[in-house]
Specification:
Chain lengths: 123, 351
């Protein structure tokens, strides 16, 4: 498994403070809430379902290799409150997502905010 | 000359430090074996004055072992003198002169979507020690095992595994009350499932020989004017999770719902002679939603995947796991969270 640093071309370690606490139906212990990472890539799928909405994003590393990241979001009600709907993301959109990454370095994390293709930041 | 003195001073400091540490009372965060700390389990200091919710969020919030808020805003003991829920229910039925008879036209208007307000049953603003003190010795031990695991991020939440949230968490999410002359149907969108309770107002409980544990139990009720009184039994023993308590299959409940303006006020008294030292009590105020809120039918498996015991084999044929297979889910495991906690505790002993 590649390390987080090697995988993300556009990653930036942004903040040390804990990320946004989002109510969840399962534990968030697998996410590193002391770190916030930004990934930029292309939307491959947007699964708008409970109990958790998922955004899948293809991210290129420095060698040009593409890895799909699974970005876990909150539930549908919380997404609607934040102005995120099924129509917000389309396959092929370029997005930047800030996440608390998985602690073990796999390509996934829990979102804290997202910047859509038209430049809106939603959190 | 300076170096021996420095060593001497350092030695004293170390000795003092060790002495101070040795005098520090053991806490949930420093204990070597929580099972040996029974005399501390009801002491707020054992949990460093953390609330149930603060313990649950501790690892995720990166504040393991830190002092909590000490908030303890609820009296969780029942204010009523009744020993059993049926005694309680019958007393209120007698007070209501056998209950009010309603037609569709005279029933109260409880239409709309309702949002539950704060309650200690939601694990907020209640100290872990307060809950521990309300439990019998066996269930107190279960509780300390749970909150230690929660504080360390070894969470076990039913919905994570696509299991029902159970009776207590359903109360904190009730959203719709469909009032009919013969029954009231209470539904909740639990995000990972949908809870439905049927409260029969035209019949009693099923005969004892036909009773069995159910996720939402079996509920009967009567109208006291425009207040609904509910008795629930046949509850499946389960765990409210999030540093809350476990209950046995002996738990029963009496609820009372009454509308006041834009609020639906509910109180519940929980009886469980196996798990609770004395009956517990909580209130929840549901407020009618003013926006366009709509429930969504959801299943946990939408994103968590299908049952772990049923899978598609490499030959494309549906197959099932049996005991001993990797990933097997044992339906005979009455306390699956304890199996989960034991894995972490064994790992800690190996370190």
């Amino acid at each position: 498994m590649k390390t987080l640093a090697a995988v993300i071309l556009s990653a930036a370690i942004l903040a040390i403070a804990g990320g946004a606490q989002i109510s969840a139906h399962h534990s968030h212990a697998m996410f590193d809430t002391s770190r916030e990472v930004a990934i930029t890539g292309t939307v491959t799928n947007f699964v708008y379902r409970n109990p958790h909405v998922f955004l899948f994003v293809d991210v290129k590393d420095e060698k040009g290799q593409v890895q799909e990241w699974a970005v876990e979001m909150s539930n549908i009600s919380n997404m609607e409150r934040r102005g995120i709907y099924r129509s917000t993301f389309k396959t092929g959109d370029t997005v930047t997502v800030k996440i608390n990454p998985l602690r073990d370095g796999r390509a996934g994390g829990n979102y804290t905010s997202v910047t859509t293709a038209d430049g809106k930041t939603l959190d | 000359m300076g170096r021996p003195l420095t060593k001497y001073v350092a030695g004293i400091c170390v000795a003092l430090g060790v002495s101070v540490l040795a005098q520090q009372p053991v806490t949930l965060f420093t204990t070597q074996d929580y099972r040996k700390d029974q005399d501390r389990w009801a002491d707020p200091a054992y949990y460093l004055h953390n609330t149930a919710r603060e313990l649950t969020d501790m690892q995720v919030d990166n504040r393991f072992g830190q002092k909590g808020s000490g908030r303890d805003q609820y009296d969780i003991q029942s204010p009523y003198p009744f020993k059993t829920s049926m005694e309680h229910y019958q007393a209120w039925l007698k007070r209501a002169n056998g209950g009010s008879r309603h037609t569709l036209a005279t029933l109260p208007d409880w239409d709309g979507m309702w949002n539950a307000g704060a309650t200690w049953l939601g694990s907020n603003n209640i100290q872990a020690s307060t809950i521990a003190a309300a439990l019998t010795p066996q269930y107190r031990e279960y509780y300390v095992q749970q909150v230690k695991a929660e504080a360390e991020g070894r969470h076990w939440w039913a919905a994570s595994y696509c299991l029902p949230d159970g009776f207590i968490r359903g109360l904190t999410r009730a959203e719709q009350f469909l009032v009919r002359p013969n029954q009231v149907v209470i539904t909740s969108d639990m995000l990972s499932g949908v809870n439905v309770r049927w409260v029969f107002t035209d019949k009693g409980h099923r005969p004892e020989a036909q009773q069995f544990p159910q996720w939402q139990g079996e509920s009967i009720g009567f109208w006291d004017g425009h207040a609904l009184v509910v008795h629930t039994n046949q509850l499946h023993a389960w765990n409210a999770t999030h540093s809350m308590f476990e209950w046995s299959d002996q738990m029963t409940a009496v609820e009372r719902y009454e509308r006041a303006g834009n609020e639906l006020r509910m109180e519940i008294t929980l009886y469980d002679p196996v798990a609770f030292v004395q009956p517990l009590h909580a209130t929840i105020t549901y407020t009618r939603a003013t926006g366009d809120e709509r429930p969504v039918f959801s299943t946990c498996s939408d994103t968590n995947g299908p049952s772990s015991n049923i899978f598609t084999g490499p030959d494309g044929i549906t197959n099932e796991r049996v005991k001993g297979d990797p990933g097997y889910w044992d339906p005979n495991d009455a306390r699956p969270w304890a199996t989960h906690y034991a894995i972490g505790e064994k790992a800690q002993q190996r370190r």
